[in-house]
UniProtKB/TrEMBL annotation:
Lineage: superkingdom: Bacteria
Sequence ranges assigned to domain Glutamyl/glutaminyl-tRNA synthetase class Ib catalytic in this UniProt record: 6-113, 185-266
Record key words, sorted: Aminoacyl-tRNA synthetase, ATP-binding, Ligase, Metal-binding, Nucleotide-binding, Protein biosynthesis, Zinc
Official protein name in the record: tRNA glutamyl-Q(34) synthetase GluQRS
UniProt record similarity statement: Belongs to the class-I aminoacyl-tRNA synthetase family.
InterPro entries documented for this protein: aa-tRNA-synth_I_CS, Glu/Gln-tRNA-synth, Glu/Gln-tRNA-synth_Ib_cat-dom, GluQ/Sye, Rossmann-like_a/b/a_fold
Length: 292
C-alpha cells in the first residue's frame, strides 16, 4: 500500500487557538497510528487577511506543541497559476460562468423570489440562500463585456446542473474511523448550488485550492473539523470534474467554549500564545483537549 499522507492546513489570518491545536494533534496522532507522513500546508490564498507575522507565529506555536511536520510547508499563495489552470480546465468543460452580482444584488433577487413564491429560498449547508442564477441566464460574453466596461470584479461560479450532468453520480467518498475502518458516504453536491469556484478578489477559492493541493501533495487521509464536513460534497464533485483522487475523510468534533460555541478567531477565542504566556505547557494543552 501507498504510505498514508496526512496534512494540517490552517489559514494565517489570526493566531491559533485550542481548536486548531486539537485538529493538528489529531492529524499527528492518526499519522503516527497508521505509519503515515504529516504535512503542514499554509492556506494563505486570502492575501488581504493573511500576514507573514501570523505565518511565523503559527509555525512557532506548532513547533512548541512538538508536532513532527515535514519541513518546507506548502504555501498556497505561491500556487495561484496552478489554481488558475484548474479553473481554466473547468471553463473549457463549460462548467464555470462569470458572475458580477454584488451581495446586495443577490440579496435583492432572493428577496424578490421569496416574495413571489411565498416560500423561503433554499439554502446551502452554511445557511446562505442559494445563488438565484442571475448571471447563469446571461450570455457570458455580455457579462464579461459589462464587467470590463464598468470596472466590475468577476467571480466564476460552478454551473451545478451542468457539472452533475458532465460527471454523473453517485458521488461517494470513504469516511474512516479512528481504527482505520472505512465506510462509504453518499455526497450531495447539489445542495451547494452554483458555488463560487474563483473568487472576485482572488484567482481561486478554498474549495478549488484544497482539492488541487490534496492531489498534488498525495494526501490520502483528510482529518478536519465537522464544520467542513458538508464541504466534502462539493470537493468530491470537483475531484470528479478534474480527474483527481478522492482521499479518505474523518471529520472530528469541535472544541467549544463554556457557552457551547465553537472556538473561532472571529469570536476572539483565546490563542495558544496567551495560554503559553500564562504558563501552559504542551502537556497541559493535550490534557485539556483529551480530557473533554
Amino acid at each position: 500500500m501507498t504510505q498514508p499522507v496526512f496534512r494540517f492546513a490552517p489559514s494565517p489570518n489570526g493566531r491559533l487557538h485550542l481548536g486548531h491545536a486539537f485538529s493538528a494533534l489529531e492529524n499527528a496522532r492518526l499519522a503516527a497510528r497508521f505509519g503515515g507522513r504529516l504535512l503542514l500546508r499554509i492556506e494563505d490564498i486570502d492575501t488581504t487577511r493573511c500576514r507573514e507575522d501570523l505565518v511565523a507565529a503559527m509555525i512557532d506555536d506548532l513547533a512548541w506543541l512538538g508536532l513532527p511536520f515535514e519541513p518546507e510547508p506548502l504555501r498556497q499563495s505561491l500556487r495561484f497559476p496552478l489554481y488558475e489552470a484548474a479553473a481554466d480546465r473547468l471553463r473549457g468543460m463549460g462548467l464555470l460562468y462569470p458572475c458580477i452580482c454584488s451581495r446586495k444584488e443577490i440579496a435583492a433577487a432572493v428577496a424578490a423570489r421569496e416574495a413571489e413564491s411565498g416560500r423561503p429560498s433554499p439554502r446551502d449547508p452554511d445557511g446562505a440562500p442559494l445563488y438565484p442564477g442571475t448571471c447563469r441566464a446571461r450570455d457570458p460574453a455580455a457579462v464579461l463585456s459589462e464587467a470590463a466596461r464598468e470596472g466590475l470584479p468577476i467571480a466564476w461560479r460552478l454551473d451545478m446542473a451542468r457539472a452533475l450532468a458532465a460527471v454523473p453520480g453517485p458521488f461517494v467518498y470513504e469516511r474512516f474511523a479512528q481504527g482505520g475502518e472505512a465506510e462509504p458516504v453518499h455526497a450531495d453536491p447539489a445542495r451547494w448550488g452554483d458555488a463560487v469556484i474563483v473568487r472576485k478578489e482572488i484567482p481561486t477559492s478554498y474549495h478549488l485550492a484544497v482539492v488541487v493541493d490534496d492531489a498534488a501533495q498525495g494526501v490520502t487521509h483528510v482529518v478536519r473539523g465537522q464544520d467542513l464536513e458538508a464541504a466534502t460534497d462539493l470537493h468530491v464533485l470537483l475531484q470528479r470534474c478534474l480527474d483527481l483522487p478522492t482521499p479518505l475523510y474523518l471529520h472530528h468534533g469541535l472544541v467549544r467554549d463554556e457557552a457551547g460555541e465553537k472556538l473561532a478567531k472571529s469570536l476572539g477565542s483565546k490563542p495558544l500564545a496567551e495560554l503559553r504566556a500564562a504558563g501552559w505547557t504542551p502537556a497541559d494543552v493535550r490534557a485539556a483537549l483529551y480530557a473533554r
